UniProtKB/TrEMBL annotation:
InterPro entries: HotDog_dom_sf, MC_hydratase, MCH/BMMD. Signal peptide: none annotated. CDD domains: FkbR2 (cd03451). This is Acyl dehydratase. The lineage of its organism: Bacteria, Bacillati, Actinomycetota, Actinomycetes, Pseudonocardiales.
Length: 174
């Protein structure tokens, strides 16, 4: 019997310019997601939470709040790109290229644009990616560049944080 570690994410050394990561989890956006996000962020534009206003707009329905789309897209990229990052340094060239509506499912993919050693932190490097988000019809709805600090292998490892039970998990105890 062996404990097999789960996916731990990429470290600085794992990135190569030109690598593309198609992030594994799509996300269907619900009306509740959109309404709650609008309320939590104090977004008072009724196009996001008033069906009558949405229906009378040029889109004929409510729009998903664009910061929600951005947040989901960035979150989708974490498992492949910044699981071992300790700081985002910038988001640039953000473009919202098509509207997103309740019921849309969005998927994201990222390409590594640049990587360099950190001059001030020898245990880390800087990585720049471009992320593109597509809806269920493969229409691009969002793009942005993001630069982050990421740990090098052997540094900043959170693997040891899993709590150790007094008794190991066994087949017999099922």
């Amino acid at each position: 019997m062996a404990v097999r570690p789960g996916w731990q994410g990429r470290f600085y050394e794992d990135f190569a310019v030109g690598d593309v990561y198609q992030h594994p989890l799509g996300r269907t956006i619900s009306e509740a997601d959109n309404t709650w996000f609008s309320l939590l962020t104090m977004n008072t534009n009724q196009a996001h939470f008033n069906a009558q206003v949405g229906a009378s707009s040029e889109f004929g329905r409510m729009l998903v709040a664009s910061p929600l789309t951005i947040a989901i897209a960035m979150g989708q990229s974490v498992t492949d790109t910044s699981q071992n990052a300790f700081a985002n340094l910038g988001v640039d060239e953000l473009r919202l290229t098509a509207p997103v509506f309740v019921g849309d499912t969005i998927w994201s993919e990222s390409i590594v644009l640049d990587r360099r050693e950190s001059a001030s932190r020898p245990t880390a490097g800087l990585v720049t990616i471009r992320t593109r988000t597509l809806n269920q019809d493969a229409v691009p709805v969002l793009t942005f560049r993001r630069t982050f600090y990421v740990h090098k292998q052997g540094h900043g490892d959170a693997a040891g944080l899993f709590p150790q039970a007094a008794e190991p998990l066994t087949v017999e105890g099922a």
